[in-house]
Amino acid sequence: MAESIKLSTVLALLTCFLASIRLCSAGDSDNLYDVCPTDMTHRKIFINGFPCKDPLNVTASDFKSSLLNEAGDTDNFYRSSMTFATAAEFPGLNTLGLSAARIDIEVDGTVMPHAHPRATEMIFIRAGVVVAGFVDSNNQVFQTRLNEGGVFVFPKGLLHYCFNAGFEQATVFSVLNSQNPGLASISGAMFGSNGADAKVMLMEKLKSKGDLNGVSSVDLFGE
Where is the signal peptide (predicted)? Predict the structure, then answer.
């Protein structure tokens, strides 16, 4: 009898442990309504997500966005731009666990290494030629060259980057599996606003090493 009680206790603890792992590894919470467009009038309420609009006021325009129609401003140090459409800017995305982005990269432009702590990102090359890569938790680099129509995935939370490898402006669209993926930039964290020389050095390393598959991230970013 005592052994059966111990066994049931162990099974119960194991079940709780597995359930906790599943909860910790889950993405955005599932939606409890069919739709829940962001209520922009209550932006000072801080919850895990955004408040919903009154269902009586929901319209088709809540599920439409033109944020990604136009190219972003690439007149900057990196010659690139990233435009995001999250639930904060695109109400219809609220509770759906999705966001989207547009990346524009001029010739010789670079999107510096960064990570999205809450989302996996899948990119689609609309125009141009792009080299994209990411660094895994073993500090190994996975990099590939993508032509128009190519698709590549950046796993959740991993450092990734891309740069224009062609002779014309590149346009990239992406989908992320979180309504608020977050953005952690290595250039801002490591170099700040005055690290121009270090940024140039990193950009040149990314572009000059050719095939980086299997290369240690230490070779790129230092110790």
Answer: 1-26
